[in-house]
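Thread title: Can someone regenerate the structure for this chain?

I was given the following input by a collaborator and told the matching structure tokens would be attached. They weren't. Posting the sequence so someone can regenerate them.
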Amino acid sequence: MKRGHQPRLMLPTVRSRLLAALLMLGMAGLIARAAYLQGMNKDFLQEKGESRYSRVLEMSAYRGMITDRHGEPLAISTPVESVCSSPQDLNATPEQLKELASLIGLDIEDLRKRLDSRPDGSRRDFVYLKRHLSPEVAAKVVELNITGVFLKREYRRFYPAGELTAHIVGFTDIDDKGQEGIELAFQDELAGSPGSRRVIKDRKGRIIEDMGGVRAPRSGKNIALSIDSKVQYLAYRELKRAIETHKAKAGGIVVLNAKTSEVVALVNLPTYNPNNRTRAGGGSARNKAVTDMFEPGSTLKPFTVAAALEAGEVKPETVFRTGPEPFSVGRWVIRDAHKEDALTVAQVIQKSSNVGSAKIALSLSPQTLWGMLSDAGFGAPTGSGFPGEVSGKLRPYRSWKPIEQATMSYGHGIAVSLLQLARAYTLFSAAGELKPVSLLRRDEPVAGKQVLSRDTALAVSRMLETVAKPGGTAPRAQVSGYRVAGKTGTAHKPDGRGYAKKRYLSTFVGYAPVSNPQYVVAVMLDEPSGGQYYGGAVAAPVFSRVMAEALRMANIPHDAPPNNVMSSTPLLQPKLQPKGDV
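Best answer:
Regenerated them for you:
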């Protein structure tokens, strides 16, 4: 080897060719992999790349507004800010975290738990730290300038009428989903659908560019209720006054449009404030007028009489012996609070005679009486569509015993809701036609079912008018300038297997003006304990005040002289000789 020459590495021909082949094969593999990744599997790579800087943020949809029949807002959504975090982008000092925790009302340890990794060790992409902040607090959170902490625009439900319409409108949860009432019943219509938008964030989690909407949010549909806010307030005020005066445990009132069966007002007491539900426990959030049942007492007597009139078994002037001896059905004895020797069918309603009602009921077949009660809507939903509405309790007639048929004629052994009871009375105010109840405003007439003949409905209506006159059980239901028809009810509350002696449900259901009925009003007081408990004494005055003001506000023409309200002193009735004693 010559001096100055470097030795050359000589490879055998086979080995050099093998090495070249391996290099070419590796290069081909890399080219194939690159082609696969950039051609066939590019979506995966693009997604992984964009995940480093791109985020898709949800855009909340505006929830539809709930209004009364005149457009007055009952539930609206207001924009609020919620503080959120992207833990994988979080960069905060301990002092910043302490200040943040203090601002949003969290313990520092609770804040750290929310920001911690998942059990598998991975970091969360998104977490709420505090929902629905006040504008002042939201501004202070922004001033902290913490990387990975940001605000999100949401909507919070606000109820302008507060406790006045709480049981009808209901409320939503923190995620703006309906939980009770109309908010729940029409969740899909009110909610709409959320949208989304894509943004670019820097390495500190700050949004540096908005790439535009991926999907626009769709606002929810507005819902117009049948409620009249003015009548609703009137009903609330008068029911509250009666409960306080008579020291009642609870109460309810329903006002229906007598022609359309729309719910004009519905109130339960006690109630709650849907804007602050800290005191909504103990069943106060339940719409008892729709979801609870009770025995209606003597308010059921008109339906017994209607069944007998419709069957041709009696006429309004038919006389029944109601005393002086008690009326026995098997080993059971039925008595009247005010004894009369004999009463006509019309007077059975006016005087609210249990004996007379029982005798009329027993003159009918069980199937006939059951058919009347069933056709009047008892034992079935009203059609309101309200969540949790009860059907009531109307047992099959084949299982009735004679005493059960007798007591059912005056409202024992049957259970109804206050809304059912109010709707049933539209049979007499609407000439025998029954329509489904609606909590939504009706812009078009709805066909009903003809349950009673017009003649029977008018005959019962004339009897109900005598109830509110001197000599009837509810002269305190009278309304100045208007003819009133209605019926009282005073029922002992069930207590185990029997009835409590000193616990009552006091009711009155009626309508006015009789010549052209506009409203049906049903009032119920639960366990009045202020010394009076008869429906004519505690519930009828509520009816009178609500009806008088509602008719005045609607500018309904008078159908009676202004001085038609007469003394409540009962008139003396002549003794009647029974004809065809039943």
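The first helix runs from residue 13 to 40.
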